[in-house]
Amino acid sequence: MDDIQRLLIERACERLVLQFAQYNDYKENDALAALFTDDCEFARPLDPTHPYYGRTAVGNIFRNRKPIMTQHVMTNILIEVVSEDEARGRSYVTMISNPDPDRSTPKEGGGIFFGAFDDVFVRTAEGWKFKKRIGSVALHQGGHIPQMPPATDEERGITK
Amino acid sequence: MDDIQRLLIERACERLVLQFAQYNDYKENDALAALFTDDCEFARPLDPTHPYYGRTAVGNIFRNRKPIMTQHVMTNILIEVVSEDEARGRSYVTMISNPDPDRSTPKEGGGIFFGAFDDVFVRTAEGWKFKKRIGSVALHQGGHIPQMPPATDEERGITK
Amino acid sequence: MDDIQRLLIERACERLVLQFAQYNDYKENDALAALFTDDCEFARPLDPTHPYYGRTAVGNIFRNRKPIMTQHVMTNILIEVVSEDEARGRSYVTMISNPDPDRSTPKEGGGIFFGAFDDVFVRTAEGWKFKKRIGSVALHQGGHIPQMPPATDEERGITK
Q1: Interval C38-72: pLDDT, tens
Q2: Averaged pLDDT score across all residues of chain A
Q3: Over chain B, what is the mean pLDDT?
Q4: Fewest CB atoms within 10 A around its CB: which of A34, B18, B68, C66?
Q5: Residues sharing a CB contact under 8 Å with residue B47, sequence separation 6 or more, in sequence order
Q6: What is the distance between the alpha carbons of residues C34 and C130, in angstroms, rounded to a whole number?
């Protein structure tokens, strides 16, 4: 693989990371789900040890949640190309939110949360997708860490 | 258009977004104005519904304002190439400031503001420029949303 | 130099900036030291006027410090290619930390600090490296600016 091929793969994966944030913040839930492979694994930053499995279960997280206003500030996107069809990456996320979903007037946030996503990307027939995306939170300034209600196995796409 | 041409356009537009922030924060006002087309439209994040028209009016915003210290943290820069001569993009801005313009010693900020810019870029004889740049603010942590004094039509480049 | 060569150099330097942050936050101290040239100059953001000289002295800053948890959020990475073997750049850093190094549960930070790095990059036989990296802090929200204990000439790599 030459440097230009590598650069194009890095760019494709970087775009997934940015699209995840924008689709999330602007409530484009179907487009958000389409960033993942059918057989993906995804863990939310506030609950990294209870991943969700499969595009449908992941999409439902966003379709079914309360429509709060969020801003996912994505930085430090560092991609390592493994092969023509696989890459890995880590990026940092800085998140702030308000329960009122109306973006038209500025609102006070409930603390700023600093975390990361550890990603595995694969090339599919429909282009590059998230195969695995594991979030985590390391620090916050203001606010407090919310208690996430536990998801059921069914919600998490776990079939017995 | 091939992937490499697309990548080079994305990069050119991404650089405009970053230069806007650095020229703004380091008070390079003429260089800042030169990032816009002659016939540009620009709305400040705190006053998105009262845009300024034309490079001269936009440049004067920065030339005539009080020389406060600002830091415009730019992230999530996602560019969509429309053609060889046009692109669109959204980026996130996280802003903090202090009334004292002296950058040589650290100062406490007056709150952190989280917003976005929605951009239209065009290729001109002098390279890629902002044709349209509409700011907005969604959230803040600490501080309060300042009241912007209304600009006159003349200041906004509106000729009757 | 054509646009693609320039883009590849920008990308190489951008990766150094991102690796500096990740190696720093994830305590990969040897990998961090290897980002610098043998004869580098490095000034920490909180003490920009007392630079360290040489890869060994720079690596020792990180090897010998208390293992606090940090998150270095890197943004606004703007690289200017000077030649095939040299580039310059400025990037913004937003930093938050907690004295407890355990990243496995989220912790409250001690303020958010906003600064910049001014960099000189050079191409070496082992790829692109930091030749010079001068940090600075402009603003903070919450917390207070820590007093850095003065480093000795020996620690700073200054030989009489």
Answers
A1: 999 999 999 999 999 999 999 999 999 888 999 99
A2: 96
A3: 96
A4: C66
A5: B148, B151
A6: 9
Q: Label residue C9 by pLDDT band (50, 70, 90).
A: very high
Q: What percent of chain A has pLDDT over 70?
A: 99
Nearest-by-CA chain C residue for A49? C104
Closest CA to A117 of A74, A54, A55, A57: A74
Contact C73 A75 (CB under 8 A): yes
Torsion of Cα atoms, B87 then B37 then C118 then B114, to 10°: -70
List the single residue in A with minimal CA-CA distance to C95: A114
User: What six digits make up the tokens of B115?
Assistant: 């917003």
Distance CA C91, CA C17 (A): 8
pLDDT value at C160 more than 70: no
Interface of C with A in 77-136 (CB under 8 A): 94, 96-98, 103, 106-109, 111-112
B151: amino acid identity, one letter = A
d(CA B8, CA A8): 11
Which residues fall within 8 angstroms of residue C65, CB to CB, at 6 or more apart? none
First-residue to last-residue Cα distance in chain C: 42
Complete DSSP assignment for chain A: --HHHHHHHHHHHHHHHHHHHHHHHTT-HHHHHTTEEEEEEEE-TT-TTS-EESHHHHHHHHHHS---EEEEEEEEEEEEEEETTEEEEEEEEEEEEES---TTS-EE-S-EEEEEEEEEEEEETTEEEEEEEEEEEEEEESS-PPPPPPPPTTTTT---
What is the pLDDT, as a whole number, of residue B160? 66
- Percent of chain C that is helix, strand, coil (3-state, to 5): 25, 40, 35
Inform me whether the pLDDT recorded for C103 exceeds 90. no
Instruction: Take residue A88 and report the two structure tokens written for it.
Output: 């890995």
| Residues forming beta bridges with residue C69, ordered by sequence position | C98
Are β-strands A127-141 and A36-43 bridged in parallel, bridged antiparallel, or unpaired?
A: parallel
pLDDT in tens, A91-139: 999 999 999 999 888 999 999 999 999 999 999 999 999 999 999 999 9
Q: How far apart are CA A117 and CA A134, in angstroms?
A: 5
Average pLDDT rounded to a whole number, residues B104-127: 96
Confidence check: pLDDT of B71 > 70: yes
CA dist B96 and C60 (Å) reads 33
Q: In a mutagenesis test of the B interface, which of C44, C73, C88, C114 is the best target, namely the one with the most B β-carbons within 10 Å?
A: C114
* ipTM of predicted complex: 0.96
Matching residue, tokens 């506030």: A46
